[in-house]
Amino acid sequence: MTMILLGLLNGALIALARTLNGMLSVKKNAFVASTMNHFVGFALLSVLIFLFFGFPTELNLDADFSIYLGGAIGALYVAINSFVFHKVGAVKAVLLILSGQMITSILIDGVDTSSKLFLYQVTGLGMIIAGMYLSVAKPRKET
């Protein structure tokens, strides 16, 4: 139950953070908003790491460089989101983001066509795409 509540809290915090970054990007621009977001986040996490774990005494420089690309992808995500958020609105932006995450997660996990769940996965993917389309489609004017 704790993990469910933390997941819900995380979702609420993401929506709040995206809204605030969208507002900042209107005042400045998307890249300034992203830079400020990451600077403040870095400062906060640095303080928390120091308080809870002390000063790090060793770095693992032998790790494959590709594992650090998540940070670059995250920074790009925040910049793009800050740019798009105020243009499409909060609800549409979140729906598009969640749809993109779900589709990518399905592709990353790989779809096993021999699995009994394959039909459900394909149906779910179709529903995500249909929902995404319906959320951004403009209603036709009656003639």
UniProtKB/TrEMBL annotation:
Q: Which Pfam families match?
A: DMT_YdcZ
Q: Source organism's superkingdom?
A: Bacteria
Q: Where is the signal peptide?
A: none
Keywords, comma-separated and alphabetical: Membrane, Transmembrane, Transmembrane helix
Q: Which InterPro entries match?
A: YdcZ (IPR006750)
Please list every transmembrane segment annotated in the UniProt record, as residue ranges.
Answer: 35-53, 65-84, 90-108, 117-136
Q: Does the keyword Transmembrane helix apply?
A: yes
Coiled-coil ranges from the UniProt annotation: none
| Listed GO CC annotations | plasma membrane
The entry's protein name is DMT family transporter
